[in-house]
Amino acid sequence: MRVLLAIGTFKFTVGVSSFSALSRKSSFKWRDINRFGQSPVQQFTGIEPSTIEVQGTSYQAYSGSAALEIFSSLTELASKGEPLSVVSQDGKNLGLWVIESVSADESSSLRVGTPRKVDFKMGLKKYESV
Q: What backbone phi and psi angles, to 5 degrees, belong to 118?
């Protein structure tokens, strides 16, 4: 299986555990400095940690129980409370990141209670050590 993204020991792969969207965000801090009788000026005060959001949909008909296992695996990985290595599909090491959130929405349940569709979302933040 071709790996699209590896986060710690979890691998998003083509087919069973793929994702549909990956968003990156970089933020920068600017503070206003008030001046008497004039408009404020801005002072650059630093860089916020970068974030990544991964979103995807897994269908029970195509992935079987893996649809629910994605959420469980990511939650278990996040609950360890450790920074994780993130590697892109081209093998580039993106450094250490922490999982800040994991969510899943289950819908179109079968008669036995198993969801046909699971939408998942995960938020990562770049780990900055002291």
A: -130, 115
- Domains of the chain: total: 1
Mark out the alpha helices in the chain (DSSP H runs): 60-63, 66-79
For 70, phi then psi, to 5°, come to: -60, -50
Separation in Å, CA 11 to CA 7, 38, 45, 55, 105: 6, 54, 36, 14, 20
Q: Global pTM? A: 0.79
Torsions phi, psi of 72, nearest 5?
A: -60, -45
DSSP 78-111: HHT---EEEEETTS-EEEEEEEEEEEEEEEEE-T
Residue range of the domain that includes 88: 3-126
Provide the CATH number for the domain around residue 62: 2.40.30.200
Query: Residue 111's pLDDT band (boundaries 50, 70, 90)?
Result: low
Which two structure tokens, joined as six digits, stand for 46? Answer: 């630093």
The C-alpha atoms of residue 116 and residue 68 are separated, in whole angstroms, by 10
